[in-house]
Amino acid sequence: MKNITDYIQQWANTYKDDMQNNIMPFWIKYGLDRVNGGIYTCVDRDGALMDSTKSVWFQGRFAFTCSYAYNHIEKNPAWLQAAKSTLDFIEKYCFDSDGRMYFEVTADGRPLRKRRYIFSESFAAIAMSEYSIASGDKTYAVKALELFKRMQYFLQTPGLLAPKYTDTLPMKGHSITMILINVASRIREAIQDECLTRQIDESISCLEKDFLHPEFKALLETVGPNGEFIDSNMGRTINPGHCIETAWFLLEESKLRGRDQNIKELGLKILDWSWEWGWDKEFGGIINFKDCRNLPSQDYAQDMKFWWPQTEAIIATLYAYLMTKEEKYLKMHQQISEWTYTHFPDKEYGEWYGYLHRDGTVAQPAKGNLFKGPFHIPRMMTKGYMLCEEIMSEIKKEIR
């Protein structure tokens, strides 16, 4: 790459401009519920509301997104107000009497569905901690920490969360292991408690000891209680997007610990292995699922290109370059960025499509549903802008 400075500056400008003039305006205009509070995400290509059901995941995700952008992109009072409105909705309507959170509620907050996972709690916790930083209201950091400790209690107390399978097939999943790293890290930015770094240490150890399988050069999604390989369709599944997301969580933690070498090497190994599994050498982009024995993947969307794995790869490759200065990671960033920005943004109505066929054609044009909304894309743009600024700062120091 001839001029790294120009390349990084161009992407910094793109991320910031997209946040200020495309992504945030779209969701403030079409998603924000000014009657009940909170955010709608089930919107069509042009922003028209298709379903007023509210994803509780996205109440937390949107409040985090608004606060994170406020903290790092622009001190926009509308973003802070939107975060507060959504947090108020969460606290008023999204918790059940047992301390658990719902998965779906109606527009006015009546419960519709509750699942065995604690991802709703995860996103509410990072929203509270980030809003605490944005607003200066420390009570939200305390609430975030309390919610995190409640999550740990649910996870560690047998019988409180229903298992996915019976005792015939004991197992554990990668998703909760990796997300606890990010949740603890985000809360730690707002409030200190020894349980946060301890959880990160435990998750990292579990990833390396149990989920990382060198015989396949892969991080597996599901393993036995002690990391045993489960030779089934599910047990062989690799989710490259999840793995790449894990990689940048690890690289971030390494940086926060003064560039801890062991954590850094683990993050880079996971990124390299997962890129090799995930990058579609024929059509480009990160593919959804692979089988670690190269058998047919059972998931019906196995060869599609979803929006979020691409955004995770953009962040991870920037992080890898920041941490190593190896140009191969900048070239990977260029590959994924050019493919993503060619296929996902909707140049007519704004925002991004979420679901593409393997060849990059649009599978369905809606901008949101219960799983896609204002989180992965704006998080990538905010984090991408921050990483580009860090890289530029280091380049300037080297020139001096």
TrEMBL record:
Q: Which InterPro entries match?
A: 6-hairpin_glycosidase_sf (IPR008928), 6hp_glycosidase-like_sf (IPR012341), AGE/CE (IPR010819)
Family under the similarity heading: Belongs to the N-acylglucosamine 2-epimerase family.
SUPFAM superfamilies in UniProt: Six-hairpin glycosidases
A Gene Ontology biological process noted in the UniProt record is:
carbohydrate metabolic process
Q: Which species is this UniProt entry from?
A: Bacteroides ovatus
Keyword Transcription set for record: no
Domain of life, per lineage? Bacteria
One GO term in the molecular function aspect is: isomerase activity
Q: Keywords in alphabetical order, please.
A: Isomerase
**Name under which the protein is recorded:** AGE family epimerase/isomerase
